[in-house]
Write a structure and sequence with these properties.
The protein has 10 helices and 17 strands. It has 395 residues and is an alpha/beta fold. It has 2 domains: 131 residues, NAD(P)-binding Rossmann-like Domain (Rossmann fold, 3-Layer(aba) Sandwich), CATH 3.40.50.720; 209 residues, 2-Layer Sandwich (Dihydrodipicolinate Reductase, domain 2), CATH 3.30.360.10. It has a 9-stranded mixed beta sheet. Strands 3-2-1-4-5-6 form a 6-stranded parallel beta sheet, sandwiched between helices. Strand 14 and strand 15 form a beta hairpin. Helix 6 packs across helix 8 and helix 8 crosses helix 10. The radius of gyration is 21 Å and the shape is globular. The C terminus is likely disordered. Bound molecules: alpha-L-sorbopyranose. Alpha-L-sorbopyranose binds next to helix 8.
């Protein structure tokens, strides 16, 4: 057997923890076609990144990502930094011949995403693979929902409702972490969680979002400066700074088949912690998913006899459901973190088989174009904005 694929992860915040769980669990639970080693984790603060390495099981830590991607013993670079460094690191890693996984959204701007997609296409010609971390595609119920739609169980998709609702910014004391600063995050709720529901809509329907009309808004315009910590768990310091991203985004999308989608991405849905929901309505049935009940789907079959129609709960935990064969007996539930293992399974399988994994950087670019179009629509009184050069959603 050839030597293991050795992984370097750049970044060590919340997504660093989730990706570490994925790299650790996937090889233990799935029969991967190649073995994997968690070689090195990289961050600017030497002490903090050494502690993360110890806690999450990385063999080494380092403080200079450029030195790490120049190493011959590294095969995969996993990027979990804020969006402002995705393009630079990903393009450098691809040029250095490393396979790349990058956390969503692909980038902060369309121009960066285009450069990344170009670099990925050039690298693919040299056998180098790249993937964007839209992990919710890999929740078994979501993958199964996509399969059912592809099998035609809802007939023609006529309407979609997609929402991602959080409430962590209702607290005006939450400090000005990088997710609230345009120069680091690109956008706010729109790019952070709206990106997930745009990708999910394109993934499950097999359609692309071709035009959007919507509004973004910032509800709390100033917040305490960040003291210690980062990401979602920082603490406040003295003084205030301006929030430069949106707190919520409401928009309508038109799919390539003409169907309309209502999108809502918000960090101000009081009481909703991490509530992603999607409902796809077709002429023969409907399917609905709710992340807060992630082991199941709701299915409505319009072709069932009159008087016996109604939404049915399908528990997506059987061995024949996507990814489930490697886990527990039916009914023994999975959680949020399992999607990160499934992401590793699909990436490592693609690398071993010499195929391009999904979601590709081109698919990440297609989401980025939608995000950009929503911002432009909002700037122009919610006018419809067409998305140029849409890239087909993958299977
Ligand atoms: C924060 O809003 C966040 O961590 C997102 O960045 C993730 O993509 C999502 O999985 C959970 O919420």
């Amino acid at each position: 057997m050839s030597r293991p694929l050795r992984v370097a992860m750049i970044g060590y915040g919340f997504m660093g923890a989730t990706h570490s769980v994925g790299w650790r669990q996937a090889p233990r639970m799935f029969d991967l076609p190649a073995s994997v080693e968690m070689a090195v984790i990289v961050g600017r603060n030497g002490d903090a990144v050494a502690e993360a390495a110890e806690k999450w099981g990385w063999a080494e830590s380092a403080t200079d990502w450029r030195e790490v991607i120049a190493r011959d013993d590294i095969d995969i670079v996993d990027i979990v930094t804020p969006g402002d460094s995705h393009a630079e690191i990903a393009i450098a890693a691809l040029e250095a011949g490393k396979h790349v996984l990058v956390e969503k959204p692909l980038a902060n701007t369309v121009a960066e995403a285009e450069a990344m997609a170009d670099a990925a296409a050039a690298a693919s010609a040299r056998g180098i693979r790249s993937m964007v971390g839209f992990t919710y595609r890999r929740v078994p119920a979501v993958t199964f929902l996509r399969d059912l739609i592809a099998d035609g169980v809802v007939g023609t998709v006529q309407q979609v409702r997609a929402a991602y609702r959080q409430d962590w910014l209702v607290d005006t004391g939450v400090p000005l972490a990088w997710r609230l600063q345009k120069e680091h995050a690109g956008s706010g709720a729109l790019g952070d969680i709206g990106a997930h529901i745009i990708d999910m809509t394109q993934f499950v329907t097999g359609q692309t979002v071709e035009a959007v009309a919507g509004t973004i808004a910032t509800i709390v315009k100033e917040r305490p400066l960040l003291g210690s910590g980062s990401g979602l768990s920082g603490t406040a310091a003295e003084g205030f700074g301006e929030v430069t991203v949106d707190d919520l985004a409401l928009f309508t999308g038109r799919l390539s088949n003409g169907a309309l989608v209502s999108f809502e991405a918000t960090r101000f849905a009081t009481g909703r912690k991490n509530a992603l929901t999607i409902e796809v309505s077709g002429d023969e049935g409907a399917l609905a998913f709710d992340l807060e009940d992630l082991n199941s789907l709701q299915f409505y079959d319009r072709t069932a006899p009159d008087g016996r129609q109604g939404f049915t709960k399908i528990l997506v935990t059987e061995a024949q459901h996507p990814y489930l064969g490697a886990w527990w007996p039916a009914g023994h539930m999975l959680g949020y973190e399992h999607g990160f293992s499934h992401q590793v399974v699909d990436l490592v399988t693609a690398i071993a088989e010499g195929t391009d994994p999904h979601p590709s950087f081109a698919e990440g670019l297609s989401v980025q174009r939608v995000l950009d179009a929503v911002e432009r629509s909002s700037e122009h009184d919610s006018a419809w904005v067409r998305i140029a050069a849409g890239v087909p959603a993958s299977v």
